């Protein structure tokens, strides 16, 4: 009896289990995420500027200006390499040596005065057929290199071979002198500019030794150059500044008022008449040569604030003044007189309480000290 009762129970349990398997559903927690990662590639754009006029009658002793610079117009830091190759061919298109029989270079490359500080010379340069240089630091976006080359000179000391032939006919002797060799020859200077993104320059400019501070070592293009200091110009008169030009000036401490030329109150005739505005200048490294040309400003004569006469005039008198520097918050060092070495100095009263150095007319140059500089200028007076 016991065995008969046990079998139906097992059968029923099996039916229940199978029913659960067949009739049930399985549920899971799931998710599905997609990430769209966009990578905007940097803009790599390098622009070169050259100033050169090819001479068609080059003569020994003649110097021809030749400058160039490289500007980073993109968004990617760059390293810059420049190489010069040169060759001569005579009037018959036959190659000539770059040096004469006395080892005089027929053409002399004149590098800028501070090129050894801004350009690292490749130590493999042979001084004749090839010169290569590397800009000393990475070229950041919107930055421009200094000029490496200034000019090229046809060496006046180079040998010029001449032949003289004379003929006599009917008692008249005619002699003809012809110059050969470098006379009538053609000189070609090729400038090759190579750039690469800065973080990869060591993979491109490989096995290079460069001269830095007179010593050859592995190429090291610096991430940053020495600090730069500003040269600004204060105009000690009331000048007219358009709204679009205001960003070129610092008028924080200036006395400015809105005026209208010829009393015509339109946007075209609107100006900011500012007394003692400061022209925001360029930045230079310590030891660089700074050149300040005559500076044009817009000046007007006013009668009861009606500006009816005006002209673009040049500031022709600059003054390096302790008092102006102090009032505008610039540093002034007592040894600047000897460090800066001004040209076109009309008087020197450095020892007085104002510490003035006057600079009269024409282009002014000086050596940049290790602090910001402010020059104050006056308009020409009749």
Q: Taking all residues together, what is the mean pLDDT?
A: 82
Counting structural domains, the number is: 2
Rg is 37 Å
Distance between the termini: 142 Å
Computed structural class: mainly beta
Q: Work out the number of β strands.
A: 28
Helix-residue proportion:
10-25%
The number of helical runs is 5
| Strand composition percent | 35-45%
Give structural notes.
The chain has 382 residues and is mainly β. It has two domains: 46-218, no CATH class; 228-378, no CATH class. The protein has five helices and 28 strands. It has helices at residues 2-23, 115-118, 201-204, 322-327, 336-340; strands spanning 46-52, 63-72, 78-89, 95-96, 107-111, 119-122, 130-135, 149-154, 161-169, 172-180, 186-197, 209-212, 215-218, 228-235, 238-241, 249-250, 255-260, 270-275, 278-279, 283-285, 289-292, 295-303, 306-315, 317-320, 345-349, 356-360, 364-367, 373-378. Strands 14, 16, 19, 20, 24, 25, 26 and 28 form an eight-stranded mixed sheet that branches. Strands 3, 4, 6, 7, 11, 12 and 13 form a seven-stranded antiparallel sheet that branches. The longest helix is centred in the N-terminal third of the chain and has 22 residues, at 2-23. The radius of gyration is 37 Å and the shape is extended. The protein starts with a helix and ends with a strand.
């Amino acid at each position: 009896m016991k065995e008969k009762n046990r079998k139906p129970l097992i059968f029923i349990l099996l039916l229940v289990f199978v029913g659960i398997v067949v009739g049930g559903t399985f549920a899971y927690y799931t998710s599905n995420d997609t990430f769209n990662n966009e990578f905007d590639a940097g803009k790599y754009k390098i622009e070169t500027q050259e100033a050169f006029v090819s001479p068609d009658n080059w003569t020994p002793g003649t110097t021809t200006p030749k400058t160039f610079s490289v500007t980073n117009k993109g968004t990617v830091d760059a390293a810059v390499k420049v190489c010069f190759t040169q060759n001569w061919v005579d009037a018959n298109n036959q190659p000539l040596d770059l040096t004469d029989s006395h080892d005089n270079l027929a053409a002399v490359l004149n590098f800028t005065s501070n090129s050894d500080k801004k350009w690292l010379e490749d130590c493999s340069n042979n001084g004749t057929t090839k010169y290569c240089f590397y800009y000393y630091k990475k070229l950041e976006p919107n930055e421009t290199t200094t000029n490496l080359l200034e000019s090229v000179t046809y060496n006046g000391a180079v040998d010029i071979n001449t032949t003289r032939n004379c003929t006599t006919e009917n008692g008249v002797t005619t002699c003809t002198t012809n110059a050969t060799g470098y006379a009538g020859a053609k000189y070609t200077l090729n400038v090759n500019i190579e750039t690469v993104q800065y973080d990869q320059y060591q993979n491109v400019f490989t096995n290079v030794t460069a001269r830095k501070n007179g010593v050859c070592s592995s190429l090291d293009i610096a991430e940053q150059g020495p600090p730069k200091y500003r040269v600004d110009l204060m105009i000690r008169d009331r000048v007219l500044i358009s709204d679009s030009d205001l960003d070129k000036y610092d008028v924080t401490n200036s006395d400015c008022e809105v005026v209208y030329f010829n009393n015509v109150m339109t946007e075209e005739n609107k100006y900011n008449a500012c007394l003692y505005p400061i022209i925001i200048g360029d930045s230079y490294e310590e030891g660089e040569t700074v050149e300040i040309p005559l500076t044009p400003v817009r000046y007007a004569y006013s009668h009861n604030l009606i500006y009816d006469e005006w002209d673009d005039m040049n500031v022709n008198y600059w003054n390096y003044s302790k008092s102006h520097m102090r009032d505008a918050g610039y540093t002034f060092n007592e040894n600047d007189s000897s460090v800066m070495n001004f040209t076109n100095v009309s008087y020197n009263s450095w020892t007085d309480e104002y510490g003035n150095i006057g600079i009269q007319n024409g282009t002014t140059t000086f050596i940049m000290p290790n602090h910001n500089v402010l020059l104050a200028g006056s308009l020409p007076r009749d």
